[in-house]
Amino acid sequence: MTVPAQALDAAVRQDGNWKRLSPRMLLVHPVIELGKALPAIVGAFLAGHGSGNDSSGSRWSLGIAGVVMAFAMLRWVTTRYRITPAQVQLRHGLVRRQTRAAPLDRVRTVDVTAHLLHRTLGLARVSIGIGTSDRKGRQALVLDGLGAERAAALRSELLHRPADAAQPKQPTQPVAPAEVELARLDPAWLRFAPFTLTGAVTGLALLGIGWRIVGEGHVNIGRLGPYRAVADRLEEWPLAVDILAVFVAVAVFVAVASTVGYVLSFTGFRLTRHDGGTLHVTRGLLTSRATSIERRRLRGVELSEPLLLRTAGGARCLAVATGLRVGRGAERGGEILLPPAPKAEAVKVGAAVLGTDAPLTVPLVAHPLAARRRRIARALAGAIVLGAAFDAAVLLAGWDSALLSVPGAFVSVAVALGYDRYCSLGHAFVRGYVVTRFGSVVRRRTAVAADGVIGWNLRSTFFQRRLGLTTLVATTAAGRQKYSVADLADADAVRFADMCVPGLLEPFLT
Questions:
Q1: What are residue 200's phi and psi, to 5 degrees?
Q2: 444-471 as b/e: b if 16+ CB within 10 A
Q3: Running DSSP on this structure, what letter comes out for residue 400?
Q4: Residue 11 has pLDDT above 50, yes or no
Q5: pTM (2 decimals)?
């Protein structure tokens, strides 16, 4: 949160004990920023050489690197922080000075991360969540550059602070907090890694950067032996065989990249429950990460089953809580409670967190058949458009006319996908939790505490109204902030909402 300047000026006059981050960050910031600017530096260097003026390219690349390093070092010089009896405050900026503060009684989550360079220098990055959903990372207060021991102590101090901590009291002998282990990474779970796509996107991005650098450097890869051999072989094979070969190569690349990403993200994974009222998640090989979640701000859990992972019998378990980074993928998001693992293990962890397995195992109420017609119709519409575009490309490019029959497979896949999407739909209300399930490419079963639901939205498109269907959306301050019960019958939507949170929709029942 941003604090008014007058209030902060008063606070500074009362307590000027501002501290710097560790000076070792002067070795970290320049390296990180140079890595981000590497494409621009390489591009300037290659552009200079491509124009025939080698010294010009070198000067431009060195100039860009110098500017980047100067700004990176200035970041440490202009950053201060302090911890008062009531707030954690962070001040940074030179031209635009900004001071942010997190009230100690609003701290809900503390995320401690340390990538390889941090760990080499004994540093850590502390991200403090103050009870709002951090979908874009704008709400967390980040102290990037504390000593590792100081970061661990600060996490414990912020999350296990008693309610009357602001009041002076007699010093007592500290008691070591007790933890109960709920889950630990099993090496056998590595078999699910190829089905997760973890790291595949990063691998493709790296390939794209490499391709761009090759293009900027005017390197003719057609002259390279391995590339030439593969290209010659593809020219000899029929088109259908070429497509199959490229598909297999991509599948192998994705499987390898996903396995590497899984190992990097989840090595050392451990989930524990703290007697002080928090859940702790630690994981990571090169970049270690420790996330602490205040249990009284936990609003539920989610079982996530991406299509490939579901076919292998696996699932993830995610937390629905305020103050967490969500929607960034399991390897980046802070809501992960269990990495891809057997579904039974994910249900077990979710039940341990909730205190009951009923929301994750109860049979769900099926949705009306009109919802099935709508799901299949929507999938078919997309398949028809895609098939028409594919046939147009075949005709314009003069490819083999046999390829004109491929869109028939699109229709078959669309029908199967629409039916699966309908089978995924379901809802229930059990043990005080609103349970909803939806999705096919990524099937999600979410259990949200009814006392965390702050409102309902009832949405009905033109086509839904023709079928008598309504999408009921539960709004909450936690997690993704909205959880949908899609394609319910109109009357059932209102009744279900009233059953979950009595009285909230009373005007609609009259």
A1: -65, -40
A2: bbbbbbbebbeebeeebeeebeebebbb
A3: -
A4: no
A5: 0.80
- Output the CA angle 325-327-333, nearest 5 degrees: 45
| Longest Cα separation, the chain | 86
The CA distances from residue 136 to 132, 325, 326, in Å, are 11, 7, 8
Span 56-101, pLDDT tens digits: 667 777 888 888 888 888 888 889 999 888 888 999 887 788 888 8
Query: What's the one-letter identity of residue 13?
Result: R
- In the three-class reduction of DSSP (H, G, I as helix; E, B as strand; rest coil), residue 105 is classed as helix
Is residue 15 scored above 80 in pLDDT?
Answer: no
Q: What is the dihedral of CA 252, 253, 256, 259, to 10 degrees?
A: -110
Whether residue 176 contacts residue 156, with contact meaning beta carbons closer than 8 Å, is answered with: no
DSSP lists the bridge partners of residue 444 as 304, 438
Give the C-alpha distances (Å, rounded to integers) separating 133 from 225, 353, 443, 479, 480: 52, 20, 22, 6, 7
* Distance, CA of 378 to chain centre: 28
> How far, CA to CA in Å, does 113 sit from each of 147, 272, 383, 404?
12, 17, 43, 52
What does the alpha-carbon distance between residue 76 and residue 72 come to, in Å, rounded to a whole number? 7
The candidate with the shortest Cα–Cα distance to 279, out of 451, 110, 158, is 110
Domain parsing of the chain, residue ranges: 107-164+175-204+256-355, 369-421
Total residue count of the chain as it appears in this document: 510
Helices (H), 355-406: 358-361, 369-397
The structure tokens listed for 263 are 């190992």
User: Is residue 340 over pLDDT 90?
Assistant: yes
Answer yes or no: are the C-beta atoms of 349 and 182 closer than 8 Å: yes
> For residue 249, what are the CA distances in angstroms to 196, 244, 246?
17, 9, 5
304: closest CA among 187, 424, 456, 132?
A: 424
| SS3 per residue for 220-273 | CHHHCHHHHHHHHHHHHCCHHHHHHHHHHHHHHHHHHHHHHHHHHHHCCCEEEE
Whole-angstrom distance, CA of residue 303 vs CA of residue 354: 13
User: What three-state secondary structure class fits 115?
Assistant: coil
Q: What single-letter amino acid sits at 280? A: H
β-bridge mates for residue 321, sequence order: 298
Helix 200-216 × helix 239-266 angle, to 10°: 120
